[in-house]
Amino acid sequence: MTDQSTPKNPNGGARPGAGRPKGARNKRPTLAAQYEARLHALVDPEFDATVRELVRIALNGAKESDRLKAIQMLHDRMMGKTPDVLEVVGGGGDEIDSEALVKAWLQDE
Questions:
Q1: Alpha carbon of 32 to those of 7, 29, 39, 42, 102: distances in Å?
Q2: pLDDT value, residue 4
Q3: Which DSSP string do the residues of 18-74 spell out, in sequence order?
Q4: 83, 89 in Cβ contact below 8 A?
Q5: What per-residue confidence (pLDDT) applies to 10?
Q6: Rounded to the nearest 5°, which phi and psi values hold at 95?
Q7: What is the number of alpha carbons within 13 Å of residue 28 lying toward its C-beta?
Q8: What does residue 86 show for φ and ψ, rounded to 5 degrees?
Q9: Beta bridge partners of 95
Q10: Closest Cα partner for 66 from 76, 52, 54?
Q11: 15, 17, 22, 26 alpha-carbon torsion, rounded to 10°
């Protein structure tokens, strides 16, 4: 039986103190971070005009779908996007046993 704490290859495996410390940032920013910084540099000066245009579309847009989308975008930015979580509770507000619910549904088929 081999000891699990010693690696088979003396040059491989995790070694104490190896690697980047937890919480340390990359010295070189990622490409996504560079793109985000460039986007902010372009959008920030036009922020007020962009919001005014969204409000104009929400109030006077040609199509109802455009108006609704603009209202949704404004709401998301003011209130924060709602989480995409579905919580299922019973009639009294109690949690529902999901396994029992699935079993009952399968029996009805």
A1: 37, 8, 10, 15, 42
A2: 55
A3: -SPPTTPPPSSPPHHHHHHHHHHHHHGGGHHHHHHHHHHHHHH-SSHHHHHHHHHHH
A4: no
A5: 66
A6: -65, 150
A7: 2
A8: -110, 120
A9: 89
A10: 54
A11: -100
pLDDT along the chain (109 residues), means of 10: 56 76 77 88 91 95 95 88 74 76 79
Neighbouring C-beta atoms of residue 70, cutoff 10 Å: 19
Cβ atoms 74, 55 nearer than 8 A: yes
pLDDT of residue 7: 52
Q: Do residues 57 and 70 touch, judged by C-beta distance below 8 A?
A: yes
* CB distance 67 to 61 below 8 Å: yes
Predicted pLDDT of residue 57: 96
pLDDT attached to residue 9: 57
Q: Tell whether the torsion through CA atoms of 7, 9, 13 and 17 is positive or negative.
A: positive
Instruction: Tell me if 41 sits within 8 A of 51, measured CB to CB.
Output: no
